[in-house]
Each structure stands twice: as C-alpha cells, then as structure tokens.
Amino acid sequence: MIIIYFAVSAYKCGSYKNVQYLISFLNLVMSKKSSTFALDFAKKVTMQQSLQQQWAQCQTILADNTTSSAYQTWFAPIVPLRFADGVLVLQVKSQFVAEYIEENYIPLLSSAIYRVFGQGTRLEYRVLIDSTSGAATMLPSAGPQAKQAAPNGMKAAAEFDSQLNALYTFDSFIAGEPNKLARTAGLAIAKQPGYTAFNPLFIYGGSGVGKTHLANAIGHQVKALYPQARVLYVSANTFKLQYQDATKCNRIPDFLNFYQSVDVLIVDDIQYFSGLKGTQDTFFHIFNYLQQSRKQLILTCDRPPVELKDIEERLLTRFKWGLSAEILKPDYALRRDILISKMRRDGIVLSDEVVDFIAQSVRESVRDLEGVLASLLAHSTLTDKEIDLALAEQVISHIVAIQPRQITIEEVMAKVAKHYNLPEKALTAQNRSRDISQARHMAIYLSKQLTNSSLSEIGMKMGRRTHATVLHSISIIKDQMEYDPVLRQHVHQLESALRA
After folding, report:
1. 444: exposed, middle or buried (C-beta count within 10 Å: 0-12, 13-18, 19+)?
2. How far is CA 332 from the centre of its chain?
3. Which of 407, 412, 496, 499 is the most buried (most CB within 10 A)?
4. Residue 54: CB partners within 8 Å, gap ≥ 6?
5. Are 94 and 346 in contact (CB under 8 A)?
6. Given this model, what pLDDT does residue 135 score?
7. Which residues are bridge partners to 125 per DSSP?
8. pTM higher than 0.70, yes or no?
C-alpha cells in the first residue's frame, strides 16, 4: 500500500521518469515482489494517462471539423477505455449513439484515430446496457469506408469480407404486418440458402422501409448458421463501378470468377442497373450461374419488377422466378413498436403521449423515425430539458410535414356504438327506436365534424340514408347541445376519444 501511495504521488507530481526513480529507491528497502507490483501499477497509470492524452488530441480534431452542437452531442461524452493490440475501445451511452456516429461521422472519426493512434487502428464501441449494474455489450465499427470486395481474385473463406452492416440483424429488425411476408421468407432462406422456392428473393418498397436492413439480416443469419458460407452484400452502383474497372483492366474473367464463387449474393438497389447494357449482360451470366448452382440471390429495389424501366426482358423474367415481397410503409402499430424498441435500446424515456404523437406524425419511413429520435435526443441533451410534447412538435415540424390524423366514418361509428353500448350494425339499420336513433344522429353529427367526408358519403355509410336525413340528424344534435349539458359532455368525450 505504501508503494501504491508513493507511485500515485509521483505520477501526480511528475513524469514516468519520476516514478522510475522512486521505484529504484524503494527497491533498496522493499522486496523484489513489491517493487514489481509498484512498477506494473505505475506503468498502468502512465498508459492510462497516455490514452487520455491521445484521445484529447482526437477530440481536438473532431471539434475543429464539426459544429459545436454536434461535437458536444456525439463526441464530448465518449470515454476512451483502452488501446491494445491495435484496437481502440470507446465507451458510448447507447447503441443509438454508436449507430449515429457510424452513419454520419465514421470517416471523420476514423481519420482522427488513424492520425493519433496509427493507420489501421480498429475501433470498437462499449455500449452501456444497464448503468446500475454496469452491464455492457461490444459493437465493432464498420470502419471509415468498408473495404470493397475485390473482384480481381478469389479469397479464402476465412479472408472473405461480406460487406454486411454489423448493426442490421434480425434482432434489430422489428416485425409487423407491413414486412411480415418479406421477413418470413428471409428467415426461411437463411435456414436453407439456395434450396427454397424463394430464389431469387426480390424485396421491394419505398425508401427507408427496411429493405437494406432485412437483406443484411438474412446475410448475418446465414453466416451464423453456416460460418463457411461466402456471403456478399454489394450495392448496384458498386457492382457497376467494379465491372467498369474490370473492363478497363481486361480482368472480366477474374471479375466473373469472383462473383461466381459467392454462396449468397445480395445486390441492393437493383434499379440502378437501368440502361447499363454491359453491366446487365455481365450480371445476367452471374445470375444464371449462381441460380443453376443452387446459390442464393437476394435483390432489393424501390419498385416491383414489372415497373422497372430499361432492364433487359431476360433479366426481368429471372427477377420474377422466385418471390417478390413488398415491404410497405410502416403502419401505426409498427411505428410505435419501432419507437419503443429504439427507446429501450438507447435508454430514452418518452411519455406515452409523446410516443403516440411521433407514431401518428411520422408515417413515411423508419429512417424518418430514427431521425426524429436523434434530433429529440440532441435537443434534450443540449438544452438539458425533458422530451415533452412541445419539444416533439417543434422537432418534428422541421423534419416532416405534420399531418393531422384522418378520422374515418367507420371509426366514428365504432366509438359511438361502444359509447351507447350498441352493436355497430344497429346504426345502419332501419330501427327507429329512440336510443338507436339518438346514437345514429350522434354518429352522423360527429362524422360531419371530424371527417372530410361529404354528406352523401356519410349517408351511404349510415345505411344509404338521404342527404336530407343527414342534415336533419346534424340539426337535431346541434339543437340539443344548446340546452342539454349532458349531451354536450357526451359530444366532447367522443370527440376527444376519436382525436386521441
């Protein structure tokens, strides 16, 4: 304990040399074992000091090349844990932070790390899962620019770079009705790649719905089940550039040999082959070879095969051989599940009110949801404020056009029937009993107030009632509201329930 005390004191007061002098002196009066312990301790202290100094240099580079708010949000909270065997481990607050840095700042971060720690330094993130227990998980960085698969020669299976995104797995892919078919097919393919009826698997849908995520997840699952499988993810644009390079260098045979050696080929954004005759011809031969060899092909596209333009008919025909699975825009239930999943993963706490508002307002893509969460987290961190409904409205208004939820006549009928404890079909029946007529009048009035439907549409939904009947019902409720406070309360309750 005395040695530890003096070693720490020497470290605080001077350099590593001071620590060595102290230990040399203590060697005269202490056992060899104790001095060795002190030396090891001093070295560890010095190494940690060196790591902190090196990371401070990285932070200076990062601060100089980003805005102040971006630096404070994403880089200032990072804690360097260790640097050994060419691997730098950084602790971040959540997986969301790691993903955001990988998506937006990895070239800059890698450049800073290479400059300070040396070229080729590998980066890993330690992500805290539970701050109370200290439980954490490790995430490898994909690197500044994932090294493109070299089509100029064969690689041994152990060296094969699949180009898969480490963050896109089935564990992080939230299942829902909009992606059910594609996800189910993907899981089946992963169990028997090349030996199902889903070859090729053609995944299509709008931007940001999860096509790339699912394609990568299938690749990861195949590698988990079959470690020796050669799985390759490549964008259509990268394939095109590789083909052009191989053509210029007279290496087309090597190019073909490389791609024909793959067990699972994932080509993202296949629509970018449009109008590229040479690229299409070459891919046609690769497709044929892999398909005939019972190798798996997975293609993603922003539209179904029938809508592709300037793609050779022989390729279009092959795209339709297997399964064409559409991923639709996430519905409300899926958007809410995605938000809750990302909140749990990133340690973000949002009220049900805020979650519902985001899920109702951000409708186009998962990417928009991620952007909103990132912005909310940044605003909350920089302003030191809780994420409430007002902040959510402010942030979302700058990212997407907030559209009020469209209430339908069917929703009105369901709420009114439940409120009056009646079956929905009673509202459209010809029954004229007082209770049913009152409920029907209420449903017609609220349909006019809360939906964009015309009087004729409302009449058709309410049992083919006439324009005059609809106007009469509306007039009845309006008149009753003037003198009946109980009815007014019922109207307000139903309006609130329908707008929620």
Report:
1. buried
2. 16
3. 412
4. 80, 83, 116, 117
5. yes
6. 66
7. 90, 139
8. no
Contact 309, 277 (CB under 8 A): no
Residue environment code for 192-230, b if the CB has 16+ CB neighbours within 10 A, otherwise e = ebbebebbbbbbbbeebbbbbbbbbbbbbbbbeebeebb
| Residues 254 and 349 occupy one common structural domain | no
The per-residue pLDDT for range 196-223, each reduced to its tens digit, is 889 999 999 888 888 999 999 999 999 9
Neighbours of 456 (CB within 10 A): 12
Query: Do residue 476 and residue 458 come from a single domain?
Result: yes
Q: How many Å apart are CA 135 and CA 480, to the nearest integer? A: 62
Is position 90 within any domain? no
Q: What is the pLDDT at residue 29? A: 41
Q: Which domain holds residue 376?
A: 332-397
Q: Give CA 32 to chain center in angstroms.
A: 56
Quick check: bond before 305 cis, omega within 30? no
DSSP-assigned beta bridge partners for residue 326: 204
Among candidate residues 376, 397, 418, the one where a domain is terminated: 397
Residue 312 · residue 284 · CB < 8 Å = yes
Residues in the chain: 500
Residue 299 confidence (pLDDT): 95
What whole-number distance in Å separates Cα of residue 239 and Cα of residue 270?
10
Residue 412: closest CA among 433, 392, 441, 437:
441
Average of pLDDT values for 300-312? 90
Q: Is 194 left (phi over 0), alpha (psi -120 to 50) or beta?
A: left
DSSP code, position 197: S
CATH of residue 201: 3.40.50.300
Apex 158 CA angle, 138 and 189, nearest 5: 75
Number of domains in the chain: 4
Same domain, 178 and 322: yes
Does residue 109 carry a pLDDT above 80?
yes
- Determine which helix (DSSP H) or strand (DSSP E) holds 241, and give its type and residue range: helix 236-248
Q: Are 232 and 170 within one domain?
A: yes
Residue type for position 231: V
- Determine contact, residues 323/197, Cβ cutoff 8 Å: yes
Q: Domain with 478 in it: what CATH number?
A: 1.10.1750.10
Instruction: Answer for the pair 472, 458: CB distance below 8 angstroms, yes or no.
Output: no
Handedness of CA 168, 171, 175, 180 (dihedral sign): positive
The secondary element (H helix, E strand) that includes residue 264 is: strand 264-268
